[in-house]
Design goal:
By secondary structure, this protein is an all-beta fold. The protein has one helix at 422-426, and strands spanning 8-13, 37-44, 51-57, 62-69, 72-73, 77-80, 82-90, 101-107, 112-118, 125-130, 140-147, 155-159, 163-169, 173-174, 178-181, 183-191, 197-205, 209-218, 221-232, 304-305, 319-324, 329-336, 353-356, 366-371, 394-399, 404-416, 432-444, 449-462.
Length: 464
Amino acid sequence: MRLVRRTLQLAVAVALAATASPLAIASASTSTTPAATAMIRIGHFSPDESYVDVYAVSLNRRQFFPNVFYKTVSAYWPVLAGPFTYEVRPAGAAPSDPPAIRVSAKLTPGHAYTVAAYGHNGHLRGLLLDDTFTPASQGQAKLRVLNTLLDNGPVDVSLANSHKIASGVNLGTATPYRQVEAGTYSVWVTQTGGLGVLYNGKVTVKAGTVTTLAVVGGSSKPRGLFSFTDAAGSAAMPRGGVATGAGGTALTTAHSLPLAPVARVTPPWSPARALSQSAGQLPCSPTCHPGLTRWRGLSGMGFEIDRLPSLLTAPSARPVRLRIAAIGVDTPLDPLGLATDGTMQVPGDFSRAGWFTGGPLPGAPGPAVIAGHVDSVNGPAVFYRLRQLAPGDAVLVQRADGATLRFVVEAVRQYPKASFPAAAVFGPLPGSALRLVTCGGSFDPARHSYRDNLVVDARLASSP
């Protein structure tokens, strides 16, 4: 007997309303105001389908991702906020054919979302999760439970067989994030109302992280737990502003941007491409694999053909050097922790910068923070020219293992120290970011301190 296996193809349609077809693309706005974006990522939780093909269509992009395997969760990437449609079609079906699944929602600017398929072969379903994050308390983490386990009904999940963190979680739903102590836990999954244990395993959650714990399997696959990081931030959140200036240039130099934070933002993943591509051309993002020629015909329909962006692997090597050619910075990096008053420590040497050890390492998920003085009592210091950085400028961070990470400046912002947004600078992010911090604004001679902090936001552009 020959078994013919039916492959499914996920077509994720992110389309703004008022189009003739769900996969049609509206005209781009001619406004000079930057379009509001949200972040999406794709997951696959159907145990009956080992791998699927994914199409992602939004107002500004058409993307095709072949061979998305079971228990895959991608990294996030940006799409235009607004009406959103997620569609699933059988393999070989035309984009205009009725979808097997359609989930519609309105994406909120600044939020992050997970779109995924789950369920049995022939009865796939779609889910859309709001992954919006807020920082956990000191030394804590945030955790939610997602149930995609087939053929078992609602589940309860307990840590260490006693501390119940989720009750009656229905198939295809997730609990709200809840705060838990950082650590490694035994996890027990039971059927709601039942006495037997469906699965027990372990999960580790680190301080400052936001994690999803998925209960997976059933049907053709064994039951199990699949945890993945949604975002990461500082394990120890500093208080207040950062004291990175002594006033030696205050009378001769203006250290100000406009008081209201001004963001000059470049796209966080890759530049928008033209939607219409000539036949035979293979548009690629930075992760594109040159062997993806089998589907070359899709490029004539305006599709980018690519691999899903992979989740970041946290590095273990510490940063040792910072180079910013645009402003002539080349400095060793000293480790910085928390001062006794709860603020972030600052470098003891005005000619050197330092990295905050209570936060993520550069290149890991979340914001790595590097601080340096704008001046000493005698004159300019290492970050004296930081305010001159502009979107697109490169920032290089060298690690102790010899690898070099390249970040690209996205925005330059200035905040009063009296209302310094610690959660925005040190709080959880889904991708890898770098914050460069120094002083700005006017100098307060009574306090021997600048009144503002200057913060440069940069995103990871390339890594080893």
